[in-house]
Write a sequence for this structure.
């Protein structure tokens, strides 16, 4: 019955879903499906989260978590990282790819933090985006998770899942951020992104979403992009890898 309802929605509902009540219902269901949703980068404090988030560009959180223990042990704060030899930093982050670029970016970022902010990671967007390697997405991750400042993080999963749910038809992070901000209260933004990311990583994959076991299939106009048979869909679900 659920699949038949979703299939009819696919044919009759527009891609752009403007119903706040419907969007809130979806988020409520995702909250029950992913009660432990959180940032999957391992960190302790704003400095570690900022470094880990910058490193996560063009790689996965899981891979970042394999190098940050060594990195933070050797350079535990902004001052030590600012004073670090770039080549030594490169050797640690090399497994992530783009080692020279990543190392130079981290040391430059730490140097600016020391020079401009007394070594303290700022807690406002305008200051954060002045740092090398830090854009709005990275800044919002730090603000939301380290400082409790509301922000939307339009990463690849948030963008994909939001489009499939009909909440946006945008293809740029900035426009997706605006569209989601119009649908949800700021108090929901941080957890909204965590739940969309968890759903995107575990079920709503880019190539073959697990539609047949999707907890929000009833409200999804994109139902059917992946296998709708529950048994076939179930094998596509990826469990958390913490």
């Amino acid at each position: 019955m659920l699949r038949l309802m979703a299939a009819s929605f696919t044919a009759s509902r527009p891609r752009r879903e403007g119903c706040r009540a419907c969007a809130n219902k979806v988020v409520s269901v995702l909250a029950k499906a992913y009660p432990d949703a959180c940032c999957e980068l391992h960190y302790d404090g704003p400095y570690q989260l900022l470094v880990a988030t910058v490193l996560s560009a063009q790689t996965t959180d899981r891979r970042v978590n394999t190098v940050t223990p060594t990195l933070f042990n050797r350079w535990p704060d902004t001052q030590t990282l600012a004073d670090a030899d770039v080549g030594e930093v490169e050797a640690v982050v090399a497994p992530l790819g783009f080692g020279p670029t990543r190392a130079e970016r981290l040391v430059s970022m730490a140097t600016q933090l020391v020079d401009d902010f007394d070594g303290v990671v700022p807690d406002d967007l305008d200051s954060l985006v002045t740092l090398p390697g830090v854009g709005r997405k990275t800044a919002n991750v730090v603000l939301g998770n380290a400082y409790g400042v509301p922000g939307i993080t339009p990463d690849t999963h948030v963008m994909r899942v939001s489009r499939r749910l009909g909440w946006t038809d945008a293809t740029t992070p900035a426009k997706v951020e605006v569209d989601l901000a119009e649908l949800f209260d700021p108090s929901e933004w941080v957890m909204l992104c965590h739940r969309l990311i968890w759903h995107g990583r575990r079920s709503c994959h880019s190539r073959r979403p697990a539609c047949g076991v999707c907890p929000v299939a009833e409200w999804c106009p994109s139902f059917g992009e992946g296998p709708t048979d529950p048994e076939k869909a179930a094998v596509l679900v990826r469990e958390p890898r913490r």
In short: The chain is about 55% helix and 0% strand. Confidence is low (pLDDT under 50) at residues 1-18. The two ends are 35 Å apart (CA to CA). The longest helix spans residues 99-117.
